[in-house]
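Re: weekly structure request thread

Next one in the queue (93 aa):
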Amino acid sequence: MVRSSLDERFRDLGAEEERRVEGTDETGNAYTRRFTTLPGRVHPSAAPELGQDDPEVMFQRIIYDGLVGAAFLRRFVVTFDVPGASLELAPAG
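Done, posted below.
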């Protein structure tokens, strides 16, 4: 299952660490990944209707606040507007 990823500075969100994996990525950099389930509902601040309950997440040092995973995106028809630098989500099916 592909999880959403959050930067490690958000680890204090009330979730207990379930699993930790340490290793070296394909660029030779060491990493620590911490896996857990966040309790409650998580949603984009401007779109609470897109919420996901108790999502499985991975914490790792990344350059973004977070990366949305397939578990979230597979619920929508996703359109990438590359020139407009936006992502549009529509209900699937």
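The CA atoms of residues 47 and 89 lie 11 Å apart. The longest helix spans residues 70-73.
Next request, please.
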